[in-house]
Specification:
Number of domains: 1
CATH topology: Rossmann fold
Number of helices: 11
Order of helices and strands: HEEHHEEHEEHEHEEEEHHHHH
InterPro entries: Pep_S8_PatG/PatA-like, Peptidase_S8/S53_dom_sf
Organism: Rhodopseudomonas palustris (strain ATCC BAA-98 / CGA009)
GO molecular function, one term: serine-type endopeptidase activity
Oligomer: single chain
Helix content: 25-40%
Strand content: 5-15%
Number of strands: 11
Distance between the termini: 29 Å
GO biological process, one term: proteolysis
Protein name: Peptidase
CATH superfamily: Peptidase S8/S53 domain
Shape: globular
CATH class: Alpha Beta
Amino acid sequence: MVSVSGSELHQELLFAFGGGERNVTVALLDGLVDRTHDCFIGAPLKPINTAAAQRAGDDAPASAQATHLASLLFGQPCRSVEGLAPMCSGLLAPIFSQNRSVCGQADLADAITRSLDFGADIILIGAGAFERPWYPGFALADAVAKCNASNALIITSAGSKGCTTLLRRCGTLNLLPVAALDSVGQLLGGQCRDLGDIGIAIPGTSVSGAALEGRVVQRSNPNVAAGIVAGAAAVLLGVLCRVGARRDPGAVAEAIRMTATPRGALGGSDYPATWTGRKSLETAAAYLTGRYESAYASSLFETWYRARAGATRSDHAAFRPRA
């Protein structure tokens, strides 16, 4: 059984492959992000004026969930929260607001389309309430078709409050639903229990991230797990760019799935395909590039950071940096 918390996995993956590349763009579709938090100082973030953002207005309050998710991706080095892809470019595309907590298909389609217009390679859709019915309208089907044409990767949580079912019915080609495991390897509550609908599972408990009013809190849910996987996907796409290979978010999704521990290998037939440690990320990079080199896997910045933290790298998910 897995005996790893989400916080341990998050810390182990920090600054892998240098923390990403600036020419890789990740879009976060959730609520409004509190960009005044210290972890975002210097982060290459661009707010997108989506239809949901326009209705909310300039004085709309920030979302605690969206701020936490954004910090897991874009939190800058040596700040209160450090993200997995701090060197990547970020797009913030609100689809939820305090005035409208339910995301309609038109708003989701608008946010996806605008994100693609700004060059999104990876789109992370936060969990929340999505408007029924569960069959796709023309606007969303068109947005997904554009997403397929650009080979963008959509990452969602596998929880019951996600939009995975709707996106599947739209024919999304590169869709990666993420489930969260507790510290003993069981699926957290409120998730899809159909293993066929889970692309990958990772530890998702007690992950520290930014909160409103400059605070730092821990969260445990599938949304957090999806944020960690989105950060890992971003740095893997940066690996492809660094070696001069074709920019291919779809190949990144395949590498993540193919390098997961197979179902049943750790906890019986009801166990999802799982990532539990740094070796999974390194193996995925080797799968993408056809080679693995230790010097290539550790950037100068990562080497400096780990020396600063007084930590050593592990071959499993038991890494605990000591400040």
